[in-house]
Specification:
about 300 residues, Neuraminidase, four-stranded antiparallel β-sheet, globular
Amino acid sequence: MYEIYSIYNFVNVMVNIKTYTFLCAIILIPVLVSCNRTEKMNDELYPAKMYEDFPYDLSKPDTVFKLSYELVEISGLSNYNDRSLLAVQDENGIVFQIDARTGIIEKKVNFNKNGDYEGIEYVDSLVYILNSNGNLYYFVYPGSGNSVQVDQIKTGLGKKENVEGITVSNDGSELYISSKDGPEKNIFTFSKDNLNSVRSISVKEIKNFVSQQNIQTVTKVKFKPSGISIHPLSGDIYILTHTGKAILTLDNQFKIISFVQLNPYRFPQPEGICFTSDGTMFISNEGNFQNSTLLKFSMR
């Protein structure tokens, strides 16, 4: 009798497992089909043709790296030595060194307590890190070890500007800091700790350019800078915006030369942008409830 009961239990468990597996398949298959359909629809909305006049085909990244959970809030990106990138995330005072070939964290350097860090730039052995409150931290980046002596610059910028990006001019003489809020988005240029100039870009100006150039857009034109970098070969200024998901490009006189929108499926939350010396472009996305990503694009 015991043997019959055991066989009955075994059969009952197996039936339940098969039923559970079948139900999971019924639930998951439509979800997976829907995801594939969404990806296809987004690729159709943002075809390669949109980027014909842009130096990069943003519809086809060379590589997409899924980053460590430690970088789910990645907020800033900079080239270190072409083989490695430096990154910050907007909660912890840590610089992450990332292998540009694999997306794997190679090294971590603690530089400050927790804070809202929104940008990072490496130049001439120094790392500059931007807090959203306008404070700028800098230190000599350690080639070996991870001990640093940090200094601070109070830029005079604050919560009103809500700064979110930092880069350096190609000759290394000026830092560029971009602001996110306000009717006009400002780019502040600094030499050491002195404010040199303020250049403004309005959404209206961008919309006029898009209209005049008959540029294809998928969504309403919005612009709140989340990252900024200067191209090492052309000297053009690339400004990334998370709100509106796009890249605005300016020449070195701050004149608009291009505006391209980004596929939100591929760029869910673009926050960081940088270039290696050969013009290869990297863009990072914050993760929210999924992995953050790092996308690599070779220049045409």
